[in-house]
Specification:
There is one protein chain. The chain is of the alpha+beta class. 25% of the residues lie in helices and 27% in strands. The chain contains three helices and five strands, in the order βαβααβββ. A five-stranded mixed sheet has the order 2-1-5-3-4.
Length: 84
Amino acid sequence: MRVQVLFFGVLRDLVGRASETLELDEDATVADVLEHYQSRIPKIREMLPSLALSVNQHYSGPGAVLGNGDEVALLPPVSGGACR
């Protein structure tokens, strides 16, 4: 099956793109997506504890089972802004 993976913030810089299509086995989970990118880009492993995950624009966890055509977003913590 195919899923669309979206990268935000520093993850977009690490991966080198804002999104890509990923081929996975049937009954794959978000954890399988994370494993794929950890093996490809080891620095992502450091960020895992603070990543927010979503499937089809709903916050999710690593155990969420994916379906063909799902959209998985990897969202690092946001920082910045100015105090007034």
